[in-house]
Amino acid sequence: MQTMKTFSWHRATEVVGLSIALTVLLTSCEQVISVDLNQAAPQVVIEGIVTDQPGPYSVTLTTSGSYFVQSLSFPPVTNALVVLSDDLGDRDTLKQRLPGTYQSSSMLRGMPGRTYSLRVETEGKEYGGISTMPQKVGIDSLFAVPRRSSNSEPGYDIYLIFKDPPEPGNYYRVNVHVSNPLIAVDSIDGRRYRLYSDKLTNGNEALYRVRARKTIVPGDTITVDLLSLDKATYDYYTTLNAILTSDRSPTSLSPANPNTNLSGGSLGFFAAYAIDTKKIVLK
Protein backbone atom coordinates (compact mmCIF):
# COMPACT_ATOMS: atom_id res chain seq x y z
CA MET A 1 0.00 0.00 0.00
CA GLN A 2 1.32 3.47 -0.84
CA THR A 3 0.47 6.71 0.96
CA MET A 4 1.54 10.29 0.22
CA LYS A 5 1.92 13.19 2.68
CA THR A 6 3.00 16.70 1.67
CA PHE A 7 3.58 19.43 4.20
CA SER A 8 5.67 22.52 4.99
CA TRP A 9 7.42 23.42 8.22
CA HIS A 10 7.58 26.96 9.66
CA ARG A 11 10.30 27.73 12.22
CA ALA A 12 9.44 31.34 13.29
CA THR A 13 11.15 33.12 10.39
CA GLU A 14 11.95 29.78 8.72
CA VAL A 15 9.56 27.71 6.70
CA VAL A 16 10.60 24.43 5.19
CA GLY A 17 8.78 21.93 3.05
CA LEU A 18 8.83 18.16 2.87
CA SER A 19 7.00 15.68 0.67
CA ILE A 20 7.37 12.04 1.66
CA ALA A 21 6.25 8.99 -0.27
CA LEU A 22 6.45 5.76 1.70
CA THR A 23 6.17 2.35 0.15
CA VAL A 24 5.99 -0.36 2.77
CA LEU A 25 6.41 -4.00 1.79
CA LEU A 26 5.76 -6.48 4.55
CA THR A 27 6.99 -10.06 4.55
CA SER A 28 6.94 -12.68 7.26
CA CYS A 29 10.37 -11.68 8.58
CA GLU A 30 11.24 -8.15 7.40
CA GLN A 31 9.91 -4.69 6.54
CA VAL A 32 11.30 -2.77 3.55
CA ILE A 33 10.75 1.01 3.49
CA SER A 34 11.47 3.15 0.41
CA VAL A 35 11.58 6.91 1.06
CA ASP A 36 11.30 9.44 -1.77
CA LEU A 37 12.58 12.77 -0.45
CA ASN A 38 10.96 15.27 -2.79
CA GLN A 39 10.94 18.98 -2.06
CA ALA A 40 7.59 20.73 -1.80
CA ALA A 41 7.00 23.72 -4.07
CA PRO A 42 8.16 27.00 -2.46
CA GLN A 43 5.44 29.15 -0.91
CA VAL A 44 5.31 32.81 0.06
CA VAL A 45 5.82 33.35 3.79
CA ILE A 46 4.36 36.51 5.34
CA GLU A 47 5.07 37.86 8.80
CA GLY A 48 3.30 41.12 9.60
CA ILE A 49 2.68 42.86 12.93
CA VAL A 50 0.84 46.03 13.98
CA THR A 51 0.98 47.08 17.65
CA ASP A 52 -0.29 49.96 19.76
CA GLN A 53 3.30 51.19 20.06
CA PRO A 54 4.66 53.91 17.74
CA GLY A 55 5.66 52.58 14.32
CA PRO A 56 7.00 51.95 11.85
CA TYR A 57 5.44 48.50 11.51
CA SER A 58 7.15 45.85 9.44
CA VAL A 59 6.03 43.10 7.07
CA THR A 60 8.59 40.48 6.07
CA LEU A 61 8.19 38.43 2.88
CA THR A 62 10.26 35.31 2.15
CA THR A 63 9.80 31.98 0.40
CA SER A 64 9.87 28.54 1.97
CA GLY A 65 12.74 26.11 1.46
CA SER A 66 13.56 22.43 1.74
CA TYR A 67 13.11 20.63 5.05
CA PHE A 68 16.57 19.12 4.66
CA VAL A 69 18.40 22.39 3.98
CA GLN A 70 19.72 23.55 7.38
CA SER A 71 19.66 27.27 6.81
CA LEU A 72 18.62 30.33 8.77
CA SER A 73 18.21 32.36 5.60
CA PHE A 74 15.44 31.99 3.06
CA PRO A 75 15.06 33.95 -0.19
CA PRO A 76 13.38 37.35 0.30
CA VAL A 77 10.40 38.39 -1.81
CA THR A 78 11.32 41.75 -3.33
CA ASN A 79 9.44 44.45 -5.23
CA ALA A 80 6.07 43.40 -3.84
CA LEU A 81 3.07 45.68 -3.25
CA VAL A 82 2.33 45.70 0.49
CA VAL A 83 -0.61 47.72 1.84
CA LEU A 84 -1.82 48.14 5.43
CA SER A 85 -5.24 49.62 6.18
CA ASP A 86 -7.71 49.90 9.06
CA ASP A 87 -11.49 49.95 9.45
CA LEU A 88 -11.54 53.76 9.58
CA GLY A 89 -10.23 54.07 6.04
CA ASP A 90 -6.59 54.84 6.87
CA ARG A 91 -4.24 53.27 4.33
CA ASP A 92 -0.48 53.00 4.00
CA THR A 93 1.58 51.53 1.16
CA LEU A 94 4.72 50.14 2.76
CA LYS A 95 8.18 50.85 1.37
CA GLN A 96 10.87 48.22 0.98
CA ARG A 97 13.73 49.14 3.34
CA LEU A 98 15.70 45.89 3.00
CA PRO A 99 15.24 42.96 0.61
CA GLY A 100 11.98 41.34 1.69
CA THR A 101 11.36 43.82 4.56
CA TYR A 102 8.66 46.46 4.10
CA GLN A 103 7.96 49.28 6.58
CA SER A 104 5.04 51.60 7.18
CA SER A 105 5.16 55.37 7.40
CA SER A 106 3.54 57.61 10.01
CA MET A 107 0.22 57.51 8.17
CA LEU A 108 -1.10 54.56 10.18
CA ARG A 109 -1.07 54.04 13.96
CA GLY A 110 -2.10 50.88 15.81
CA MET A 111 -4.95 51.35 18.30
CA PRO A 112 -6.89 48.79 20.39
CA GLY A 113 -10.35 48.02 19.07
CA ARG A 114 -9.53 48.69 15.44
CA THR A 115 -9.39 46.05 12.73
CA TYR A 116 -6.36 45.99 10.43
CA SER A 117 -6.00 44.48 6.99
CA LEU A 118 -2.90 43.45 5.08
CA ARG A 119 -2.75 43.05 1.29
CA VAL A 120 0.30 41.68 -0.53
CA GLU A 121 0.68 41.40 -4.30
CA THR A 122 3.68 39.65 -5.84
CA GLU A 123 4.27 37.80 -9.10
CA GLY A 124 0.64 38.11 -10.14
CA LYS A 125 -0.76 36.64 -6.90
CA GLU A 126 -2.57 38.35 -4.04
CA TYR A 127 -2.49 37.45 -0.35
CA GLY A 128 -4.26 39.01 2.59
CA GLY A 129 -4.94 38.90 6.29
CA ILE A 130 -7.20 40.58 8.88
CA SER A 131 -6.62 41.06 12.61
CA THR A 132 -8.52 43.03 15.27
CA MET A 133 -6.37 44.51 18.03
CA PRO A 134 -7.75 43.61 21.49
CA GLN A 135 -7.97 46.08 24.32
CA LYS A 136 -4.74 46.33 26.27
CA VAL A 137 -4.50 44.36 29.50
CA GLY A 138 -1.97 45.94 31.87
CA ILE A 139 0.54 44.29 34.19
CA ASP A 140 -0.58 45.14 37.73
CA SER A 141 2.52 43.83 39.49
CA LEU A 142 5.94 42.40 38.62
CA PHE A 143 8.32 40.91 41.17
CA ALA A 144 11.06 38.28 41.51
CA VAL A 145 11.81 35.73 44.23
CA PRO A 146 15.27 34.11 44.45
CA ARG A 147 15.37 30.31 44.55
CA ARG A 148 17.60 29.19 47.40
CA SER A 149 16.32 25.67 48.00
CA SER A 150 18.93 22.92 47.75
CA ASN A 151 16.40 20.85 45.81
CA SER A 152 16.10 23.26 42.88
CA GLU A 153 18.38 25.01 40.40
CA PRO A 154 19.59 28.43 41.59
CA GLY A 155 18.01 31.43 39.94
CA TYR A 156 14.87 33.52 40.23
CA ASP A 157 11.16 32.95 39.90
CA ILE A 158 9.69 36.00 38.17
CA TYR A 159 5.97 36.66 38.68
CA LEU A 160 3.61 38.98 36.87
CA ILE A 161 0.04 39.65 37.98
CA PHE A 162 -2.68 41.01 35.72
CA LYS A 163 -6.48 41.24 35.81
CA ASP A 164 -8.24 39.37 33.04
CA PRO A 165 -11.26 41.27 31.61
CA PRO A 166 -14.76 39.93 32.44
CA GLU A 167 -15.51 39.14 28.80
CA PRO A 168 -14.42 35.57 27.86
CA GLY A 169 -11.95 34.83 25.10
CA ASN A 170 -8.80 36.73 26.07
CA TYR A 171 -5.40 35.50 24.92
CA TYR A 172 -1.87 36.51 25.85
CA ARG A 173 1.79 36.04 25.09
CA VAL A 174 4.49 36.85 27.65
CA ASN A 175 7.92 38.04 26.48
CA VAL A 176 10.76 38.27 28.99
CA HIS A 177 14.11 39.97 28.32
CA VAL A 178 17.20 40.46 30.45
CA SER A 179 19.79 43.25 30.27
CA ASN A 180 22.71 40.80 30.50
CA PRO A 181 24.41 40.82 27.05
CA LEU A 182 25.68 37.26 27.60
CA ILE A 183 22.14 35.89 27.61
CA ALA A 184 20.38 35.46 24.28
CA VAL A 185 17.14 37.36 23.72
CA ASP A 186 14.13 35.59 25.26
CA SER A 187 16.16 32.61 26.49
CA ILE A 188 15.79 33.42 30.17
CA ASP A 189 14.01 30.10 30.76
CA GLY A 190 14.65 28.31 27.47
CA ARG A 191 11.14 28.98 26.20
CA ARG A 192 10.41 31.00 23.09
CA TYR A 193 6.61 31.14 23.31
CA ARG A 194 4.90 31.68 26.67
CA LEU A 195 1.18 31.63 25.95
CA TYR A 196 -1.82 32.04 28.23
CA SER A 197 -5.61 32.01 27.75
CA ASP A 198 -8.42 32.86 30.16
CA LYS A 199 -10.25 29.58 29.55
CA LEU A 200 -9.96 28.59 33.21
CA THR A 201 -9.48 32.01 34.81
CA ASN A 202 -11.87 34.31 32.93
CA GLY A 203 -12.44 37.60 34.72
CA ASN A 204 -10.06 36.76 37.56
CA GLU A 205 -6.64 37.92 38.66
CA ALA A 206 -3.97 35.90 36.86
CA LEU A 207 -0.56 35.00 38.29
CA TYR A 208 2.06 33.95 35.72
CA ARG A 209 5.47 32.57 36.69
CA VAL A 210 8.70 32.48 34.68
CA ARG A 211 11.49 30.33 36.13
CA ALA A 212 14.66 32.19 35.21
CA ARG A 213 17.83 30.13 34.89
CA LYS A 214 20.85 30.41 37.17
CA THR A 215 22.58 32.64 34.62
CA ILE A 216 20.34 35.47 35.88
CA VAL A 217 22.15 37.36 38.66
CA PRO A 218 21.45 40.28 41.02
CA GLY A 219 21.67 43.61 39.22
CA ASP A 220 20.17 42.30 35.98
CA THR A 221 17.22 44.28 34.65
CA ILE A 222 14.23 42.14 33.68
CA THR A 223 11.76 43.50 31.13
CA VAL A 224 8.39 41.77 30.74
CA ASP A 225 5.95 42.41 27.88
CA LEU A 226 2.33 41.28 28.15
CA LEU A 227 0.88 40.98 24.63
CA SER A 228 -2.92 40.97 24.28
CA LEU A 229 -3.67 38.77 21.24
CA ASP A 230 -6.70 37.89 19.18
CA LYS A 231 -7.60 34.20 18.93
CA ALA A 232 -6.14 33.72 15.44
CA THR A 233 -2.73 34.99 16.57
CA TYR A 234 -2.88 32.85 19.72
CA ASP A 235 -3.71 29.77 17.64
CA TYR A 236 -0.80 30.51 15.30
CA TYR A 237 1.71 30.76 18.14
CA THR A 238 0.27 27.67 19.85
CA THR A 239 0.58 25.44 16.78
CA LEU A 240 3.99 26.91 15.90
CA ASN A 241 5.24 26.21 19.42
CA ALA A 242 4.03 22.61 19.18
CA ILE A 243 5.95 22.14 15.94
CA LEU A 244 9.17 23.69 17.24
CA THR A 245 9.13 21.57 20.40
CA SER A 246 8.37 18.25 18.69
CA ASP A 247 11.22 15.73 18.57
CA ARG A 248 10.84 15.31 14.77
CA SER A 249 11.56 11.60 15.14
CA PRO A 250 10.18 9.10 12.59
CA THR A 251 7.63 7.94 15.16
CA SER A 252 6.35 11.41 16.03
CA LEU A 253 3.34 13.07 14.44
CA SER A 254 3.96 14.52 10.98
CA PRO A 255 4.96 18.20 11.01
CA ALA A 256 2.36 20.57 9.64
CA ASN A 257 1.94 24.27 9.02
CA PRO A 258 0.89 26.44 11.97
CA ASN A 259 -2.63 27.81 11.80
CA THR A 260 -2.78 31.02 9.79
CA ASN A 261 -5.20 33.89 9.22
CA LEU A 262 -3.74 34.58 5.77
CA SER A 263 -5.56 34.00 2.51
CA GLY A 264 -4.26 33.13 -0.94
CA GLY A 265 -2.24 30.07 0.05
CA SER A 266 0.62 31.81 1.84
CA LEU A 267 2.25 30.72 5.08
CA GLY A 268 2.89 32.82 8.18
CA PHE A 269 0.63 35.25 10.01
CA PHE A 270 -0.64 38.82 10.32
CA ALA A 271 -1.26 40.08 13.86
CA ALA A 272 -2.45 43.23 15.58
CA TYR A 273 -1.84 43.25 19.32
CA ALA A 274 -1.51 45.61 22.29
CA ILE A 275 1.54 45.58 24.57
CA ASP A 276 2.06 46.52 28.22
CA THR A 277 5.62 46.57 29.62
CA LYS A 278 7.16 46.64 33.08
CA LYS A 279 10.76 46.38 34.36
CA ILE A 280 12.42 45.32 37.60
CA VAL A 281 16.03 45.14 38.80
CA LEU A 282 16.93 41.86 40.53
CA LYS A 283 18.18 42.10 44.08
How would you characterize the overall build of this protein?
This protein is mainly beta and 283 residues long. It has two domains: 178 residues, no CATH class; 96 residues, Sandwich (Immunoglobulin-like). Strands 9-10-5-4-20-18-15-16 form an eight-stranded mixed β-sheet, covered by helices on one side. A five-stranded antiparallel β-sheet has the order 8-7-11-12-19, with no helix packed on it. Strands 1, 2, 3 and 6 form a four-stranded mixed β-sheet that branches. The protein is globular, with a radius of gyration of 22 Å. The N terminus is likely disordered.
Which descriptors would you attach to this protein?
283 residues; mainly beta; Immunoglobulin-like; 8-stranded mixed beta sheet
Strand and helix map with partners:
Layout: E1 2-11, E2 14-26, E3 31-38, E4 44-51, E5 58-63, E6 65-66, E7 81-86, E8 91-93, E9 95-98, E10 101-103, E11 115-122, E12 125-132, E13 139-147, E14 155-163, E15 171-178, E16 194-197, E17 205-212, E18 221-229, H1 231-244, E19 262-263, E20 267-281
Number of strands: 20
pLDDT averaged over residues: 81
The outline comes out as: globular
Distance between the termini: 64 Å
Structural class: mainly beta
Reported for the largest beta sheet, the result is: 8 strands, mixed
